[in-house]
Design goal:
about 80% helix; mainly alpha; globular; 12 helices
């Protein structure tokens, strides 16, 4: 087999593996993207504006929050600051993935970092840990998911005039996807503990802190609890 043919086969294998991992995300993004497009259209955004927002932001929860604040009459600075704080969790996700991407150049890291979402993070992290996975396959996952998200939100923007607000339970779509992602990550008692701690802390901190800061605070505290519990449960041999 010639060298160009081998490279072509390698690229096909990378695209095939990435697409196989990405299709559940794309399938899940379709109803959520439609829901966002409908809601954003009801808030006064055009399909072009919806597409640009999805392309530039690419963060479903932040986009839902931004549109909700726009509907409530919030100004530009509060919307930017709120969505920035909500997306701070991406720092934690990027830190977790960085150990698998040490040899990438800056432009490749930037291209990869753009495509990190909760869903692509969960899929890629699992495969980096359990399988022979590399940054090229992970990049395919990220950007196929991105294309599915942008396309579905634009379609929702066009379809919004035919769908009543709140119909078919579309307001619950994003929450449902996060719950499914959580279930797939519960692989032991420690994960159940962290999930329960994050949920309980989020409810408690939401009473004390305004806005959406409680999401980041609860995540950081629950992760810290998980680290402390794991260290305490290790035997002396494992700790050395």
């Amino acid at each position: 087999m010639t060298e160009p043919r081998r490279k072509e086969d390698d690229y096909r294998a990378i695209a095939r593996d990435g697409a196989k991992a990405a299709w559940p995300i794309c399938l899940g993004y379709f109803p959520i993207g439609l829901a966002f497009g409908v809601i954003a259209g009801k808030a006064g955004l055009s399909p072009v504006e919806i597409g640009l927002m999805s392309l530039l932001v690419f963060a479903g929860s932040a986009q839902f929050i931004a549109v909700s604040m726009m509907t409530g009459g919030a100004g530009l600075i509060p919307i930017v600051m709120t969505t920035f704080v909500v997306n701070l969790r991406h720092l934690l996700m990027s830190s977790s993935l960085s150990v698998f991407l040490r040899d990438l150049g800056s432009w490749r890291l930037a291209l990869y970092g753009y495509g990190i979402t909760d869903e692509s993070f969960a899929v890629n992290l699992t495969r980096f840990r359990d399988e022979k996975w590399d940054w090229r396959r992970a990049l395919v996952v990220n950007h196929l998911s991105n294309a599915a998200w942008v396309g579905s939100t634009v379609a929702g923007g066009y379809a919004g005039e035919f769908i009543p607000h709140g119909a078919f339970g579309i307001d619950y779509a994003l929450i449902a996807m996060f719950l499914c992602l959580l279930v797939f990550q519960l692989r032991g008692a420690l994960y159940w503990l962290i999930a329960a701690a994050a949920g309980g802390l989020a409810v408690f901190i939401s009473i004390l802190l305004p806005g959406n800061l409680y999401v980041v605070a609860a995540s950081v505290l629950a992760a810290t609890i998980g680290v402390l519990v794991r260290r305490k449960s290790k035997t002396p041999e494992e700790s050395t």
